[in-house]
Amino acid sequence: MINDVLNEFEAHLKKAVEALRHQLAGIRTGRASSSLVDHLQVEAYGSPMPLNQLANISVPEARLIVIQPYDAGMIKVIEKAIQHSDLGINPSNDGRVIRLGIPQLTEERRRELVKVVRNRVEEVKVSVRNQRREAIDDLKQLEGEKLIAEDDLHRGQDRVQQLTDKYIAELDQVGKDKETEVMAV
């Protein structure tokens, strides 16, 4: 029973780390990356769809993203979605492909992005702490129902704390890596 609670808790923590990695992939650095636009929602065929389902996205140069729609009629819609996103990049097209030139980030913009990274890391840490509290509550409930002994409760709580510490450290490392990437000129 304790292992069920711990396994479920660890699964939540793994998902939190992956969610953070996914969120941070969308934060712009000075280099072009298809992850900047992959999941951009485009209003197509009457419903929102991720851009990577509507077009081939490639990065031929360090500061250029090329988007080639599967349906040439989607160019204007994709352009509009890019303009309305928070990327701050103006698209250009030649009728067949859309080009996104990634401008060099200013020092001030880099510092703002580092703050955004830190905020996102902190948000995920808060969710991890909430998950920890829920796991400990579940263990206490098991003990209250006399399904586990008090010693087992304490061992379970110690294991929950160890897992929390391990994943908080991993979240910090993911954040530091992204900060380094953002600040690299």
Report on the structure:
The chain folds into 2 domains: 2-25 and 106-183, Ribosome-recycling factor (Topoisomerase I, Chain A, domain 4, Orthogonal Bundle); 34-101, Gyrase A, domain 2 (2-Layer Sandwich), CATH 3.30.1360.40. Helix content is 57%, strand content 15%. The protein contains 4 helices and 6 strands; from the N terminus they run H-E-E-E-E-H-E-E-H-H. It has helices at residues 2-25, 75-84, 107-144, 150-183, and strands at residues 41-44, 47-50, 55-61, 64-69, 92-93, 98-101. The strands form 2 sheets. It has a 4-stranded antiparallel beta sheet, with helices on one face. Strands 1-2 form a two-stranded antiparallel sheet. Helix 1 (2-25) packs antiparallel against helix 3, helix 1 packs parallel to helix 4 and helix 3 (107-144) packs antiparallel against helix 4 (150-183).
Coarse morphology: elongated
Number of domains: 2
Low-confidence stretches: none
Top CATH class of the largest domain: Mainly Alpha
The main pleated sheet reads as:
4 strands, antiparallel
Order of helices and strands: HEEEEHEEHH
**What is the architecture of the largest domain at the second tier of CATH?**
Orthogonal Bundle
CATH superfamily of the largest domain: Ribosome-recycling factor
Instruction: Indicate the proportion of strand residues.
Output: 5-15%
**How many DSSP E strands?**
6
Determine the structural class based on helices, strands and strand pairing. alpha+beta
What Rg do the Cα atoms give?
Answer: 22 Å
CATH topology of the largest domain: Topoisomerase I, Chain A, domain 4
As laid out across the biggest beta sheet, the strand order is 3-4-6-5
Compute the number of helices: 4
- Averaged pLDDT, please? 89
Q: Helical residue percent?
A: 55-70%
Amino-to-carboxy terminus distance? 51 Å
